[in-house]
Amino acid sequence: xxxxxxxxxxEWRYWSRTKLASxxxxxxxxxxxxxxxxxxxxxxxxxxxRETLQIKAEETFRDQPARHPHxxxxxxxxxxxxxxxLAALDPGVxxxxxxxxxxxxxxxxxxxxxxxxxxxxxxxxxxxxxxLTYQLLLPLVLIVMGFGVVAREREAATDRQLVTxxxxxxSIWLGKTLALGSVAFLxxxxxxxxxxxxxxxxxxxxxxxxxxxxxxxxxxxIITAVSTWSQRTSVSLLILLSxxxxxxxxxxxxxxxxxxxxIPDTSQIxxxxxxxxxxxxxxxxxxxxxxxxxxxxxxxxxxxxxKRVEDLPxxxxxxxxxxxxxxxxxILNEYADKRIAGQRVQTQLVKSYEFVSxxxxxxxxxxxxxxxxxxxxxxxxxxxxxxRFQFVQDLNKVHEHxxxxxxxxxxxxxxDAARRTRVDSENWRVLxxxxxxxxxxxxxxxxxxxxxxVILIWLMVFAIAGLLGARRLPEVNHG
Amino acid sequence: MKKITxxxxxxxxxxxxxxxxVKNLSFAVKQGEVFGLLGGNxxxxxxxxxxxxxxxxxxxxxxxxxxxxxxxxxxxxRRAIAYLPESANLYPHLSARENINYFLSxxxxxxxxxxxxxxxxxxxxxxxxxxxxxxxxxxGMRQKVAIAVAILRQAxxxxxDEPTSGxxxxxxDEFNRLIxxxxxxxxxxxxxxxxxxxxxxxxxxxGLLRRGELVGMxxxxxxxxxxxxxVHQAFASGA
Lengths: 479, 239
Prior knowledge:
Chain A has helices spanning about 1-15, 20-60, 70-75, 95, 130-145, 150-155, 160-165, 170-200, 200-230, 235-260, 270-280, 295-305, 315-350, 360-370, 375-400, 405-410, 415-420, 440-445, 450-470, and strands spanning about 75-80, 100-105, 105-110. By secondary structure, chain A is an all-alpha fold. In chain A, strand 2 (about 100-105) and strand 3 (about 105-110) form a beta hairpin. Chain B has helices at about 45-50, 75-80, 95-105, 115-120, 140-155, 170-185, 195-200, 230-235, and strands spanning about 5-15, 20-30, 35-40, 60-65, 70, 80-85, 155-160, 190-195, 205-210, 215-220. In chain B, strand 1 (about 5-15) and strand 2 (about 20-30) form a beta hairpin. In chain B, the strands form two sheets. Chain B has a six-stranded mixed beta sheet, sandwiched between helices. In chain B, helix 3 runs parallel beside helix 5 (about 140-155).
C-alpha cells in the first residue's frame, strides 16, 4: 500500500506541475461549488417561500367572511409542494413538474409554476444543478485529468522502469487509481458539505452521498482501466470520451425516447377532451333539476317520507352538489390514475436500463434518495386531490345541512333568503392543513438497494478490467 | 578469489510472433565483468535483455540471474538488476533529485541527501542542473541521472541497452569511464549495442549476435582491449 501511496503522490505532483490538469481541477471545483451554492440557496429560499405561502393560503381561506358555501367551493385554495432538504442538491423533477396546485370544486387542475420555465431562471443553465454537475460533468473532468495516468507511463516506457525497480504492475494500477480517486473525493467535498448542511437525517444523507461516491468511483475505475489497456494517451482519451458520450448522453436519451415510444403519454389536452366527454354522463351539479339526479331525488324523498324536495329536512341542492362532485371526481381520478400509471411505467422502463449505464442508475437513484422523483410528485398530486375532495365535500355538506332549500333557490331574488344562505366563517375551518413530505428515509433507502447493486456491479467489472490490464504492464514492443 | 557467474544464458531460444528471435544462445557473465552483446538491428540483443528481466518468456533453455531463472521468478531477477534502456525512462516534470528520490523510495532503498549528491558527483552531473526538470536535459544528462539511480540502488547487475546512442563523443567518453569504474567496484554489466567502437572501449568480452545466434566471441586480455578492427571485420563480414 505504501508503494501505491508513493505512486499516487507522484501523480499528484505531475498534476500540480501540469498547467492543464491544475486548471481543469480548479475550474471544476469552482463550477461545482457555484452549482452547489446557487442551487442550495435557491432551493432554501423556495422552501421558505412555499412554507410561508402554504400557511398564508390556509389562513386566507379560513379568514373569508360569511358567505354561501358553494362560493367557497369556487373560491378554492392553493397547496404547495415544499422541497425536501436534499432537493437542494438534486431538485429532480421539481423544476419541470410544477410545485403549486390550485384546488377548487369540479376540477383537478395541473400543478403550475415550474422554476425551470418561469422567470429569470428559465434558460439552459437553469438545469446545472449539483446532481447534474456530478452526474455529467465530473466524469468529464476526471477523464481530462486521468486519461493518461497509466497510458502516459506506457508511452514513455516509465512503466518498464517502475517494474524493473521491483514495483508490481498491480501497485502501479492501484497507485494511479488512488491518485485519481483522491481527486474525485476532493471534488465530492462540496456535495458532502451540501448534504451535511441540508439533511438532518444522517442515514438518508449518507445514502445519498454514497450513491455519488460509488458512481464517481466507477468512473475512476473506468478511466484507469482504459488508460491501463491503451497503448497511447491519445487512444485512451478518444476511448474515454466515446464511453462518456455513450453512457452519459446517448444511452440516457435513447432509453428515455424508447420509454416514451413504448408507453406513449397522452397530452394534457387529449386527456382534458376525454374527461369532458366522460363528464357529460354526470349531471351538472349546479342544476338540481338535471335528470341525472332523478334517482337521487327519488331515494331521498323515499328515505325522508316526503313528496317534494322543499319538504326534505336537508337542502337538496347541497345533496346534488355532493353526489355530482363524487361522480365527477371518480371520473377525474380514473383519468389521473391512468396518466400517472403510464408515467410510472415509463419511469420503471428507464430504470430497468440502469444496467447499461451507471449514469441512468445514479440519475434514478439520486432522485429517489432526494425525494424528488416522479413517484413523489405523483403522491403530491394525489394528496393534493385528497385535500381538494375533502374540503369541497365538507363545504357541500355545509350546503346540504346549514340552509333551507327554499332559501337557496330564492337567494338571487330575495335578499333575506340570500342573507340566510350565508353561513358563518367558522365553517371554513373544514379545510385541513396540508404539509407535503417526501417518503420517510427508511422507505427511500429501501428503494435504493437495486441501484446500489447495479453501481457495485459496475465497480467490480471495471476493477477487474483494470487489474487484468495491469497484468499486461509493461508492454514489450521491440527487441 | 574466484568470481561467480551472475548472468547466464543457457541454450536460450525466444520466439515472438511465430518468429525465432533468439536461437540457442549460451553465454555466462561473471561478477564485475563488462559483457557486450553486439549486433545489428533485429539481431535479438534487446530481446535477450528483456528475457533476463522476465518480460519475455523463453521458448527453450533458460535466462538466469544469480542462478534464478527469470521465467520462474522475474521479481527476484529484477531486484538484482538496474536497467538502463536506450532512452532513459525518467520523468521529465521532475528534477534529477526528485527522480532519484522517487525511484529509490519505490525500490525501498534508503539514501541520504549526501548519498544522492555523491552519486550525482560520480556521474558528473553539473550541480546547477540538479534541481532543473529533466524536460530541459540532454539525452546524456538523462543517462547520467539514470546511472545515478542504478548506483544508489546498489544493484549488483547493470543492464544497458544502446547506452551511448545519441550521445556526443565527450559524453560517450565520460559514460565509458563510469561503466569501467562501476565494473571495478564489482558491478556486473551486460551491455547490448551496435556501436563496435564503444563496446570495444569498455567490454571485457563481446559476443557477436546475428539473427538471434551467437556467431563470435571476443575477449580483452590483461594487456590489450578488444581489437576494434577485428570485431568490425567480423561484424561487417557476417562471420
